[in-house]
Amino acid sequence: MKTIYAVGTCLSMIATCLLANHQMAATKTAATMKPLDAKAAANLVAQGKQIVQQKGCNTCHGANLAGKAKFSPSLHSNGVLKQYNPKTWARVMDVGITEDGGKVKKPMPLYHLKAQESAALYAYFKTLK
Ligand code: HEC
Fold first, then answer.
1. CA 44, CA 51: separation in Å to the nearest integer?
2. Is the CB of 101 under 6 A from ligand 1?
3. Is 102 close to ligand 1, i.e. is its CB under 6 Å away?
4. What is the pLDDT of residue 3?
C-alpha cells in the first residue's frame, strides 16, 4: 500500500512538473513571438524611410511627402497609396504601370525597385497620415 502511494505521488509530481514546463515554454513562445513581429515591421518601415532618402522622393513629392499642387500626388496613406494594393504597388515601383494600367508620367523616374524595396516603401507610406 505504502509503495503504491509513493509511486502515485511520484507520478503526479512528474506530471505537474511536465505540465509546468509545457506552460512555461508556451508562455515563452508567445512572449518572444510578438516583439519579433513588431520588430520586423519596424525594420521594414525604417528601410522604407531610407529608400525615400536615397532616391529623393521628397524633392518632388514635398518635404513631408504630402505631394505638390498640380505636380505630384501625396504619398501618404490617404493619398495615391489608397489606390494600390501591395502587388500593384510593387509593379508601379518596378515598371511604372499605374493601378489603372496607365504609365507613370515624367518627370517621375522609373526606379525598377525590387519587390522587397517596394514592400518597405509601402509599409512606410502606410504610416504617414
Ligand atoms: C523628379 C521628380 C520625382 C521624383 C524624384 C519622384 N517622383 Fe513620384 N511622381 C512625380 C510626378 C511629377 C508624378 C505625377 C506623374 C503622373 O501623374 O503620372 C509622380 C507620381 C508618383 C506616383 C503616382 C503614380 C500614379 O498612380 O499616378 C507614385 C506612386 C510616386 N510618384 C512615387 C514616388 C516614389 C516612391 C518616389 C521615390 C522613390 C518618387 N515618386 C520620386 C515626380 C517625382
1. 11
2. no
3. no
4. 55
Q: Does the CB atom of residue 118 touch ligand 1 within 6 A?
A: no
Residues 115, 86: contact at Cβ < 8 Å?
A: no
Residue among 57, 108, 112, 117 whose CB has most ligand 1 atoms within 8 A, to mutate: 108
In the structure grid, which three cell numbers stand for residue 112, read together? 525598377
Residue 14: what pLDDT? Answer: 47
Report the length, in residues, of the chain: 129
Say if residues 61 and 114 touch (Cβ distance below 8 Å): no
Query: Ligand 1, from 50, 71, 72: best to mutate by most atoms within 8 Å of Cβ?
Result: 72
**CA atoms within a 13 Å half-sphere pointing along the CA-CB vector of 52:** 24
Ranges of the chain with pLDDT below 70: 1-36
Start-to-end CA distance of the chain, whole Å, equals 74
Spatial distance between the Cα atoms of 36 and 10, rounded to a whole number of angstroms:
39
Look up residue 123 and give its three cell numbers.
509599409
